[in-house]
Amino acid sequence: MLKKCMGDPSLIIPTEDIGIKDNLPYEEIPVQILDRQVCNLRTKEVALVKVLWRNQFVEEATWEAEEDMKKRYPHLFEPGENPYQGTNSLLSTL
């Protein structure tokens, strides 16, 4: 059974006193392209890449549109490196 909780208004701290800034930007930066796949829709094909972001684990990598990632982060697709180091690429080399 849940009990009724009586809050103490003296414990509430107004945010104006703390000095929280609302305009602090936080942008995730991509670190590596893990995998690539092509998603077939009814009328077109969409190329997707699995992106590993800074401060995230591999399990939290997200699928992003390859075209958008090439526009925003061209350094991830430089020809000197192998940008697709995912499991599919690993299996194709074996």
TrEMBL record:
The organism's place on the tree of life at top rank: Eukaryota
InterPro entries: Chromo-like_dom_sf, Chromo_domain
Chromo domain ranges (all copies): 31-77
UniProt xrefs under Pfam families: Chromo (PF00385)
PANTHER family with a match to the protein in the record: CHROMO DOMAIN-CONTAINING PROTEIN, RETROTRANSPOSON PROTEIN
Protein name: Chromo domain-containing protein
Species of origin: Solanum verrucosum
